[in-house]
Design a protein that fits this description.
Length: 274
């Protein structure tokens, strides 16, 4: 179970672990029974000590479950990174976790499984973080899927000022919203309101910092070059499909190049290739 909060700012999974611990255990038991997996491992980062202690207490008398404490590090929530860290197994390029005998589920997913079995409740709600320095009253809330982002922000007291950038998701992998009149979806784990981004793109200086931080050991600077040339085969050969879009490369980029835009264009083109 992926109990590593996938991004800075967001604390929804942490809150679910604390408030619905018994549901998490029930859901994990259901997954183990359904899949025939030999062991259930709940991975929690070491900055969530209260959740670690609670879950360790819950699994103490269960022989096929354990809690794995991982060092807090972004983007540890990416499933391939998590598998390598916890199990020491490397998912092959283009492969799936099942190829190395692992299934990864998110904490909120397991809570939904428990709700479906114990309450007969379909996936109609989830815990979501509404936060950021521009939100007056941030917090975690159980929301109905389909709720308007505008209604959620109004419920939190609105913005502290008008100079604000709203993203669905976290600061790294989240995407900017051009309008607040959009619904929350089943994967909407957060809404953040932060300062607007005024950075300007500069030419690549080939510093290699994007290569240094890539958790998938890719070379993101080539993706920008190949995207401009529309060299989609080159992007495929450089394993663009293995990118988890963590935006670490874009965050660290000295020239502030929107690398993820090139990666997404490349992925779409590769998917369309025959």
């Amino acid at each position: 179970l992926n109990g590593c909060e996938c991004e800075p700012y967001l604390t929804a999974d942490h809150k679910v672990l604390l408030e619905f611990a018994d549901d998490i255990i029930f859901g994990l038991k259901a997954i183990l029974k359904t899949t025939g997996a030999g062991k259930g491992i709940i991975v929690i980062e070491d900055n969530k000590q209260d959740a670690i202690e609670l879950m360790q207490e819950k699994v103490a008398d269960i022989g096929n479950m354990e809690v794995f404490v991982a060092r807090t590090k972004y983007p540890q929530g990416a499933e391939k990174t998590l598998i390598k860290r916890v199990m020491g197994r490397k998912v092959p390029s283009g492969g799936l976790p099942a190829d190395v005998g692992v299934i990864v589920d998110n904490i909120s997913t397991v809570k939904a499984i428990s709700d479906a079995i114990q309450k007969g409740m379909p996936l109609i709600e989830r815990v979501t973080t509404i936060t950021g320095e521009k939100i007056k009253n941030p917090g975690n809330f159980i929301i109905k899927i389909g709720t308007s982002v505008r209604d959620l922000i109004d419920y939190c007291g609105g913005f502290t000022d008008d100079d604000v950038l709203v993203k669905m998701g976290g600061p790294m992998m989240g995407f900017p919203l051009n309008t607040l009149d959009v619904p929350m979806m089943k994967g909407s784990n957060g809404i953040i309101a932060i300062d607007t981004d005024e950075t300007k793109e500069q030419p690549c200086i080939k510093c290699g910092r994007c290569v240094d931080v890539c958790p998938m050991e890719l070379s993101p600077l080539y993706f920008v070059k190949y995207a401009k040339e529309e060299n989609w085969q080159g992007m495929k050969d450089m394993s663009v499909m293995d990118c988890v879009e963590c935006r670490g490369c874009q965050y660290i980029c000295s020239s502030k190049i929107p690398i993820i835009n090139s990666i997404k264009a490349g992925k779409n083109a590769v998917r369309g290739m025959k």
